[in-house]
Amino acid sequence: MLSKRLEAIASLITTDSIIDVGCDHGYLDIYLTKKGIKCLATDISNNALNAALTNFKKYNLDIPTICTDGLNNIDIKDTDTIVIAGMGTDTIIKILNKNITNDLVILTHNHLEKLRRYVVSIGYYIDQEVFVIDNNKPYLVIKFKYGKCSYSAYDYIIGPTIKDNKYFNYLLNKYAKILNGIPSKYKNRIDYYNSLIKEIEMRKESVK
Ligand SMILES: C[S@@+](CC[C@H](N)C(=O)[O-])C[C@H]1O[C@@H](n2cnc3c(N)ncnc32)[C@H](O)[C@@H]1O
Asked: Which one of 40, 98, 122, 208 has the fewest CB atoms closer than 10 angstroms to its CB?
């Protein structure tokens, strides 16, 4: 069975083919191939690819693999969705440093605001965001499409498209904890988190 995290990634794919950058075990590729989506499974690590190949064999699936750093040496078709999941934002930014306009489905480990700002700066907009809790860990998967849209500073921090109370409650909890730990002399920081919490509460209110 596919994890909730990988299911959320799969739910955002609307093209007939994907390039799975950093496929590791290849579970996403197995799931999508069974659904008729063509996958190219890539990873920088030969060990990871060997594990993926063993899994593909188990399911009798002939999924092509390439051992490479990011999108280097990959023949990218316009219609391929590029999936990059389970890496940090800095690695993802290095991988995206190419002239591409493909749909992107991204799940970063960290620095969501930085990721949103970078991907928008290279010509994309945020099409959809899906929040899941998997094994007690929160994940936000973002689908970017090529095209223009402008965002507020809060949109980059919170996410412009998501209207999910589970997500808002998670953020409110997270920022309340941060706020509690800030000594009272740091007034600017306290004001910042209070304004962020107010914005999230407003967005949560608009979902009802
Ligand atoms: C934590 S695993 C995530 C696997 C899978 N994408 C998922 O989300 O379940 C990260 C994988 O990315 C690979 N990786 C890290 N940097 C990479 C890069 N620059 N190019 C391709 N793969 C990379 C690692 O070798 C590892 O297999």
From this structure: 208
Rounded distance from Cα 179 to ligand 1 centre (Å): 33
Pair (77, 170) in one structural domain: no
| Residue 134 beta carbon below 6 angstroms from any ligand 1 atom | no
The pLDDT tens digits of the residues spanning 73-100 come to: 999 999 999 999 999 999 999 999 999 9
Tell which atom from ligand 1 comes closest to the C-alpha of 9. 8
> What is the radius of gyration, based on Cα positions, of the chain?
19
- Range(s) of the domain holding residue 39: 4-152
Domain at 85, CATH number? 3.40.50.150
Query: For residue range 29-85, what is the model confidence (pLDDT) as tens digits?
Result: 999 999 999 999 999 999 999 999 999 999 999 999 999 999 999 999 999 999 999
**pTM of the entire structure?**
0.97
Q: Is the CB of 21 under 6 A from ligand 1?
A: yes
- The Cβ of residue 163 has, within 10 Å, a number of other Cβ atoms equal to 12
Atom of ligand 1 nearest to the CA of 95: 19
Residue type, 110: N
> Is residue 151 a contact partner of residue 120, using CB atoms and an 8 Å limit?
yes
| Paired tokens of 91 | 């690695």
